[in-house]
Amino acid sequence: MRSRFTQWSKLLIVFGITSLGCTGDVLDGPRGAEGGDDGGSAGVLGASQLRRLARREYDNTLRDLLGEHEALSHRFPVEDSPHGYDNHVSARSVPPLLAERYLIVAEELAARVVPRVEALAGCDGARDESCVERLIRGFGQRAYRRPLDEEEIERLFAVYRDGASRRGFDGGVELVLRTMLASPNFLYRVERGEPDDAAPSGRRPTSFEMASRLSYLLWATMPDEALFAAAEADALRSPEEIRAQVTRMLADPRAKEMARQFAAQWLSLDRITRIQRSEEQFPAFSPELVPLLRREAELFIEEAFWRAPDGIRALYRGRTTFRNAALAAFYGSPGPSGEDFEVVTMEENRAGLLTLAGVLAGFSHPSQTSPTLRGEFVRDHLLCTKLPPPPPDVNNNLPPPSTGTTTRERLEVHASTPTCNVCHRLVDPIGLSLENFDAIGLYREDEDGSPIDATGEVVDSDIEGPYVGAVELAERLSESAQALDCVARQWFRFSFGRREATEDLPLIESLVAELNGNESDTANLLTAIATSDEFHGLSTRPEVP
Amino acid sequence: MRRPRPAMSRRAFLRAGTGAVLALPLLTSVRGARASALPKRLVVFMCSTGTIPDRLFPVPAGMPTARFTAQPEEYFTSGASFLDTEDYQISPILEPLLPYKEKLLVLEGLDNCTGFNGHGAYGSLLTGAHFIGPEESPTPPNESFDQLVARHVGPETPFPSLQLGVVVSIGYSPDHDYCSWFGPNQPAPAENDPRVIFDKLFGELSLSDDERERIRLDRRSVLDAMTAELASLERKLPTEDRLKVQQHLESIRQVETRLIGVGAPGRYCMPHPRPEYDFWVDTAWGPTWNDEEIPNMLRGQMDNIATAFACDLTRVVTLQFGEEGFGLPHWWVGVNDYRHHLSHDDDSNPESVDKITRISRWYAQELGYLIDKLASIPEDDGTVLDNTAIVWMHGITKGNSHASDNHPTLIAGGLGGALRTGRYVRFPTDRDGNRHKLNDLWVTLAQDFGVEIDRFGEDRYNLGPLTVLRT
């Protein structure tokens, strides 16, 4: 029986590993212009002036434009996420499959909408060219999120007349609707801007483009009537005007939904949804718990974002969570008695996001905990430090759990092998401090008979120094300036659709300054984004004639 | 999440099987007036997340078959000699393909050009090159081999190529998600829903000529307006964004042919019954595919391929079963483990080795279904299978070591007589220690399709075509 160590050393020798270090620079360095897509242009919302709607934005926009409630975007391929979120400014090209899908979906939608087109266009009952006029100018303005120019209007009229020649009014408007819903002006957020002598680049977004920036920032959808009206009046420029809109928009449920999507992507909540456990090994666990664990995480995060008295710090150390009867029984604590989720205070030995059973289980292996995965979650998601993958020629399987050894002992090889330790020292000690929580997130004092040592360290950070256990880790994280900085960076990436560049650091700093430790943290941060120069700027790149 | 399921019900098998059997005898190959020479076709059936090579590679006749049952080797020794034999003992994984042995070429000794690259090696399989570009959005520097062939033979058919999938889920990283690439930064995503492909290929067969004409004119009108809008946009945007618009325009042009139509399909072309099971199920987080129908989805896609070939609607298809590193529990072969985690179990765990073997064996069995379908469509003196090459691989060689060397590669079909099948061929290390990369296989096959190239992908990974595979 070959021992694990012999296997690894054999591989190391065979491939002559060179020292692959983790860089000494712990903070996630801003990505410069190397990628071509990101950064390079200061004061830019996104380096691209053409942003394809993400699937979730597409669904929301259709819902608000047509009143359609059936989500259709699952028919489209999933987005790549170069910056960690689904809304990168330079999302890839539209391949034939997607182009066709847009067209087919537009056909379906148009056919469904035709019967109620008069209501949609605000016609007075006559199904004639005056109604078509309203459809193209009025509805078209909502669909393209800006007034149409004469060339566009004439083109759409031509489409109407062609369709009407075969199938009358219905046929004509159906083709007009199809064209609009598959139009690049609908599918992309197009920003052409307008001249502005006062701006460093000589250009600024148009007022309608500002309306879309706000609505997609806070609601992930098209502007509403109030925003369109403000755009018409060019009343989306001054900080006062913007603040008024932001306050109004944050009170709308769509803002919470946007934040929910942000959190789900930032904190990889999908890992909770994919939890799978063997019934024999974990009799306390059942698949029915999975959506409940996810819901607890969502509600916990929402509390920290919008209501906790200590603001975003509650994410790391908050004890207010949400459970229903089934979850309470799983946790083994007193709790609510029904199916509905209610406010619950966590047990003494838990505090913060990292002690939610869903998160602990989501960042474990199917049959054992994974201090490395849990530590990486903290390092990468909460402290924004990117770690390189393991060297490609290393067998990185954990030995199976066996009686008499703890996870800490089995992970010892990371610490004792220099090429492993150079990176693993950044993650393992964090995860090991969470070892009191097993692979389904339940508390334990020992592991197969051996007592658990929950000492931990977050080395190379502003919260260095040993500590013991999850609750102390929660306190440390809530005191970390790096963690707050990371919150700001993540919101930046999600809001601007790209990674931060060197030029963005002053804005990031100002966002951190908004996280004052009260229930308005998130609202203040989003307001700061919406009133920033960057948010109101447009690319310096010249147009090609 | 799912509870463990019993083995696929007999009723479900019948549903999948009967439909196919009824449709098949009526199909003969239709090539239409467009084609000149005998058509050749390519299918790449890409599975993922590794296999157990020792259970897949055959053993020459007369040699001991210990590798079929012993603990698998962790790594592969180089320096094995060249082998070319028709006389071999079928392995546990290939056993369902025994009836087709004389149509198969089992290849050993071909490496993915990347060498060890974890699951990220997947994207390099058909592109023969390392990925380049920013870490956040890597891309191969060239198109994939199937798209190279599609550019060459594609113009003769309504669809230059098709990318079919089963439970392919993307969004992790391009080098794990896509094996087919139109070009740099242009991945070719797979369509998971067989009904969508069905409708795309055959949707209008039941319409009257008038209806079909009306649809054509309607679509023409919309497409013209869209193209005008895109062109207008292109003029007004900076350079980088123009590229995006141009790509969108190009995609429209490609689908235009299909949407507007190149004429009615041959009247002998009759599609199989349209799959009517529930593909989507609703969950709290939106619709997701219906686990229970996965085996039917694969057969549905294979039915689509067979009929598409018979009706000469395309000649190049990639069929992706999951993305590299996927988690799918293969419940219908009694494996409820998360696939990726299973792949990391040690070779010393006989249960895990057996589970992975069962999964690959099921892939082989399903490959047999496709082979069967193509073999039962007559074409000239032979069958569609005789004029096709189906290439079957797993995304990486072995899951737990993330190996990308010594890919078990199987070709089924004679490619119009270009390939001499019925053999197990093992490529050696040559005198200078070089091993053949898959690039050499792609060059060989591309040449057999009439593409005039002598290298593919990155230059340094080309040793020369594998002429030994030919007749």
What does this structure look like?
The complex is a heterodimer of chains A (545) and B (471). Helices cover 49% and strands 5% of the residues of chain A. Chain A is mainly alpha-helical. Chain A has a two-stranded antiparallel sheet with strand order 1-2. In chain A, strands 3-4 form a two-stranded antiparallel ribbon. In chain A, helix 10 packs antiparallel against helix 25 and helix 24 (505-513) packs antiparallel against helix 25. Mean pLDDT of chain A is 86; it is low at 1-21, 23-46 and 541-545. Chain B has 471 residues and is α/β, with parallel strands linked by helices. Chain B is built from eleven helices and 16 strands. Chain B has helices spanning 10-23, 53-56, 145-153, 174-177, 194-202, 209-236, 239-260, 294-310, 339-343, 350-375, 438-448, and strands at residues 41-47, 59-60, 83-85, 88-89, 104-110, 162-166, 181-183, 186-187, 280-283, 286-289, 316-321, 378-379, 382-383, 388-394, 407-412, 423-426. Chain B has an eight-stranded mixed sheet with strand order 3-16-5-15-14-1-11-6, sandwiched between helices. The longest helix of chain B has 28 residues, at 209-236. Residues 1-28, 32-36 and 262-268 of chain B have low confidence and may be disordered. At the A-B interface, helix 1, helix 3, helix 6 and helix 13 of A face strand 8, helix 6, helix 7 and strand 10 of B.
Low-confidence stretches of chain B: 1-28, 32-36, 262-268
> Taking Cα atoms only, what radius of gyration of chain A do you get, to the nearest Å?
27 Å
Widest sheet, order of strands of chain B: 3-16-5-15-14-1-11-6
Q: Tell me about the biggest sheet of chain B?
A: 8 strands, mixed
Report helical residue fraction of chain A.
Answer: 40-55%
Q: Beta-sheet strand percentage of chain B?
A: 5-15%
Query: What gap, in angstroms, lies between the N and C termini of chain A?
Result: 71 Å
**Percent range for β-strand residues of chain A:** under 5%
Secondary structure category of chain B: alpha/beta
State the total count of DSSP E strands of chain B: 16
